[in-house]
Amino acid sequence: MGTILVFLAGILFLAGILFIKPRAKQDLKWKTVVNWVLYVLWYAITGIGISFIYINSSVGHVKATSTAIFLFLGLSLVIAIILARLLGFLGKTRKEINPSIKA
């Protein structure tokens, strides 16, 4: 099972790189660096959280598992939202159909 999870983790890491690469090159240099640092940080926190949850749930530590779900996956969600905002997936402004008409 561990080999399959490591294989899937590698596939997801490569897919994330291929997904972010075209969008990250369009921005400023500092923003590109911030995007990649946030992606690596998000991936590391998510991986550590999933492994921590997997290990503690298999042993039967309910409190440690619930704490890990709250802490690691909460941090992962916050970083993912920030990364999506910086890449332009969230908070895009709508284009007006006719910009000469003001409401």
Topology:
Layout lengths: L1 H23 L4 H31 L2 H26 L16
Helix pairs in contact: 1-2, 2-3
Name the descriptors.
mainly alpha
Kindly describe this structure.
- The chain is mainly α and 103 residues long.
- The chain has a domain at 29-89.
- Helices cover 78% and strands 0% of the residues.
- The protein has helices spanning 2-24, 29-59, 62-87.
Quick structural summary:
The chain is mainly α. Helix content is 78%, strand content 0%. It is built from three helices and no strands.
Low-confidence stretches: none
Order of helices and strands: HHH
Tertiary shape: elongated
Distance linking N and C termini:
59 Å
Largest sheet: none
Mean pLDDT rating? 83
Number of helical stretches of at least 4 residues: 3
How many β-strand runs? 0
Helix fraction, binned, reads over 70%
| Class computed from helices, strands and strand pairing | mainly alpha
Rg, Å, rounded: 18 Å
How much strand?
A: under 5%
